[in-house]
Design a protein that fits this description.
The protein has helices at about 15-30, 60-65, 70-80, and strands at about 5-10, 35-45, 50-55, 85-90. By secondary structure, it is an alpha+beta fold. It has a 4-stranded antiparallel sheet with strand order 2-3-1-4. The chain is globular and about 40 Å long.
Length: about 90
């Protein structure tokens, strides 16, 4: 069963460009990962500090491997103190 992930990232005031640049670095490398079916970054039209990834993965296990990937760890270091809020929802298509 396919796993859908909705990840919301809220950049700290004045850190929007930094967070956006670091999130964009994740796209190509993640799309090349085993099990990644879709990995799309969005920005809120009314709030440039709110980013959202819409993801589809073959399995939860493959998504969990992604969450432990070196490029995710590098993102966390690069954006330390620049993200006010981060939420992840694991979803199943009905």
């Amino acid at each position: 069963m396919t796993l859908t992930i909705v990840a919301n990232i809220h950049a700290a005031k004045g850190k929007e460009d930094l967070v956006k640049a670091e999130l964009e670095k994740l796209i190509d490398v993640t799309r090349a990962e085993a099990g990644c079916l879709q990995y799309d970054l969005h920005v809120d039209n009314e709030n440039p500090a709110h980013f959202m990834f819409y993801e589809n993965w073959e399995t939860r296990e493959l998504w969990q491997e992604h969450m432990s990937a070196p490029h995710l760890a590098a993102y966390m270091v690069a954006t330390e103190g620049a993200v006010d809020a981060f939420t992840v929802n694991e979803m199943t298509r009905i």
